[in-house]
Design a protein that fits this description.
The protein is built from 15 helices and 6 strands. It is mainly α and 370 residues long. It has one domain. A hairpin with a 2-residue loop joins strand 3 and strand 4. Helix 1 runs antiparallel to helix 14, helix 2 runs antiparallel to helix 3 and helix 10 packs across helix 15. The longest helix has 27 residues. The protein is globular. The chain starts with 5 loop residues before the first strand and ends in a 15-residue tail after the last helix. The model has no long low-confidence stretch (mean pLDDT 91).
């Protein structure tokens, strides 16, 4: 799944200095790079958030309005599990132990996805090639939407700044019913091949699907009227999909983010790893404590891309180190000030790419060859 045309240099003066300062921070503070008591309490809180909404729907006598309200609550909790628990586990940042990390990563299977497929799509493709057109599957939606200046524009895209918001709500439903099974059958994610799961991975995949469909649909249908149960499922999934999608989009698909396309002649190009991460991944709302807690530090997504094996509870402290080191090396690092500003930037980016073929230059420096 590696792109032979693109190589990354991780030995630049900037990244070497940055890693040294981060190492010094942990040496001085004495903290583990993985999770701590705050992380474990958050896990219990968010898991309880999701479970309590589900149980309340089953045991309370609610109509459609009550079902929708509880679905909104549950959908928010499910997104929180993905961002604040499963994500760290999938990056082996939740704990030092391999088994606990794996258990937390299986939170995605509990929510209807697949930690195994996610690992290949997210850890291998996206983290290696963020915003690299043709290699990062997350910025390639085909004819449905244009997210990168290098992608072709179709007539439909002139309305993408309007229709993409509700479509984001269908993302997890598409995972449940189409994507995971289709990708598993093909053995490919986009144009990239990946090994089909075997052994424990295969067991987790299929048992996870059985567990998810049991709690999400079968049990509610057995307890409640079919229409009410299906409404509860659909609304919860749409809430989860919108939250997950826009959290990602506010970091990568905005006016401030750079994109890169491998040379058409196929000749390898070497990029500066750290500068590429900061150019293509934008932090936002870094002073918003609730956003940081709920999003699992994904509002510090540039920090996460630089140090994916460090638990997100440390990201605010690391952000200050990155800011200072970037300033000393003349590397741009300017987080978007708020969630609202990041949402506005994503809206304008969609509109600009949908209405003009011209490349919309990012405000910050592009990813440059090392």
């Amino acid at each position: 799944m590696r792109d032979a045309r693109i190589r990354f240099d991780t030995r630049s003066d900037f990244f070497t200095d940055l890693k040294g300062r981060v190492d010094a921070y942990f040496d001085t503070s004495g903290e583990s790079r993985r999770g701590n008591l705050r992380m474990y309490l958050k896990t219990a809180t968010i898991m309880g958030w999701w479970l309590s909404a589900w149980v309340a729907f089953l045991v309370l006598d609610v109509g459609y309005l009550g079902a929708v309200a509880l679905a909104v609550v549950m959908g928010g909790g499910m997104a929180g599990i993905g961002m604040s628990v499963m994500h760290d586990g999938g990056h082996k940042a939740y704990a030092d132990g391999r088994r606990l990390n794996a258990l937390m990563s299986w939170g995605l299977d509990l929510m209807g996805g697949s930690a195994y497929i996610w690992n290949h799509k997210h850890n291998v493709q996206h983290h290696t090639y963020p915003n690299v057109v043709g290699s990062d599957d997350d910025v390639d939606l085909g004819p449905l939407a244009r997210l990168a200046p290098e992608s072709p524009r179709y007539a439909l895209h002139r309305f993408q700044h309007l229709y993409m918001w509700p479509l984001y709500g269908l993302i997890t439903i598409k995972w449940h019913w189409i994507d995971d099974f289709y990708q598993l059958a093909r053995g490919r994610i986009g144009e990239h091949a990946f090994p089909r799961p075997k052994g424990t991975d295969a067991v987790v995949f299929w048992v996870g699907k059985l567990v998810f469909f049991s709690w999400a649909l079968i049990i509610p249908i057995l307890v409640k009227p079919v229409g009410l149960a299906v409404t509860f499922y659909l609304v919860a999934q749409m809430v989860q999909g919108v939250v997950l999608a826009i959290t990602f989009q506010m970091a990568h698909c905005v006016e401030e983010a750079a994109y890169f396309e491998a040379p058409a002649d196929g000749k390898p190009v070497t990029l500066d790893f750290a500068r590429h991460q900061l150019a293509t991944t934008i932090d936002f709302a870094t002073t918003n404590r609730f956003a940081t807690w709920y999003m699992g530090g994904l509002n510090f997504q540039a920090i996460h891309h630089l140090f994916p094996r460090i638990c997100h509870v440390h990201y605010p402290a690391l952000s200050a180190i990155v800011r200072e080191t970037a300033r000393d090396h003349g590397v741009p690092y300017s987080p978007t000030p708020s969630v609202r500003a990041a949402l506005g930037s994503h809206y304008r980016w969609l509109k600009a790419l949908g209405t003009t073929d011209e490349v919309v230059a990012p405000a910050r420096a592009p990813a440059v060859p090392a």
